[in-house]
């Protein structure tokens, strides 16, 4: 019985490692670059002026749209985060922006 439990735990660890490698495998197969970025503050950073002016804290998670206090740009939280993550990925890879090939 203990051997079976140990084997199941080992199998689960292998599945987690395999799942973590999937984005890399798929991007290689598709011929696209993949960059790992830190997504911290991407919902709060304005994509227009880079000000950290979005909703903060746990209560800020309920806010779906917000207005930048620095430049007045209106943002959807998820779209804003996606644009910031794409920009960070491009910067990491040395690209001009989403969709570009090289600097």
Automatic annotation (TrEMBL):
<dbReference type="Pfam" id="PF07282">
    <property type="entry name" value="Cas12f1-like_TNB"/>
</dbReference>
<dbReference type="GO" id="GO:0003677">
    <property type="term" value="F:DNA binding"/>
</dbReference>
<feature type="domain" description="Cas12f1-like TNB">
    <location>
        <begin position="28"/>
        <end position="85"/>
    </location>
</feature>
<protein>
    <submittedName>
        <fullName>Transposase</fullName>
    </submittedName>
</protein>
<dbReference type="InterPro" id="IPR010095">
    <property type="entry name" value="Cas12f1-like_TNB"/>
</dbReference>
<keyword id="KW-0238">DNA-binding</keyword>
């Amino acid at each position: 019985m203990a051997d079976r439990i140990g084997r199941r735990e080992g199998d689960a660890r292998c599945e987690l490692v395999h799942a973590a490698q999937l984005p890399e495998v798929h991007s290689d197969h598709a011929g696209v670059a993949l960059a790992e970025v830190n997504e911290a503050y991407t919902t709060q950073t304005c994509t227009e002026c880079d000000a950290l002016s979005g909703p903060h804290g746990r209560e800020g998670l309920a806010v779906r749209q917000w207005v930048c206090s620095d430049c007045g740009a209106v943002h959807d939280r998820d779209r804003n985060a996606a644009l910031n993550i794409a920009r960070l990925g491009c910067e990491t890879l040395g690209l001009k922006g989403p969709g570009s090939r090289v600097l």
